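The step that takes the researchers longest sounds almost clerical: writing a folded protein down as plain text. Below is the pair of lines this work produces for a single protein:

——
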Amino acid sequence: MDLGRFAQQMASMARDLLAQESVDGTLERITASATELVEGCDAAGILVLHDAKVETLAPTHQLVIDSDQLQQRLGEGPGFDAAYSSQGERVFRIADLTGEHQRWPAYAPQAHALGLGSMMGFLLFTDDEDLGALNLYSRRPGAFTETSELAGWLLASHAAVAFSSARTHAQMEHALATRHTIGEAMGILMGSRHLTEHEAFDALRRYSQDNNIKLREVAHRICEQGSV
């Protein structure tokens, strides 16, 4: 590996991640970077678990989706293990899936049948949260080396920070937009029903609770229709 060139590529990738304007854009740049920068990587994706349900983010190939769905169906697999618990492996490298029948007796042979030869994965985490697992796939056994693992680990470290930052930014934007919508809806009620600010908010809250509709949805309806 040309270390100077690789360092330049990693620096460029880090800037690209921070320049993305959405969470989806950040994730797509992460997985695309894996196929560009990590030797042996044919496909990449991010696996996130919600309870026991798998969500595949920014897959670069159908193979990624197939593997994640297989792990969900079987309840086992390397990416599944890494994403499931902070106590799981933070980094794993599987040289040959055909040799992993003891660890994942159901997943390993079926993953090999999908066309997977080797696999590598990294838990995406910051000091505050675990975000999922970045999984890298190759059709060839033995495709990933120690150099590949180092490159993947560096990528995952940058990716976790960028992913967390993008998600926090999106949540803040959503909160601000929700607050603006609620304020606008309160203004409409105050004007049309001659309510005080407190009375207008209380009317929104009561309607939300009585009809089991989120407060922001009630506010959105009022802003669009003038009433609920």
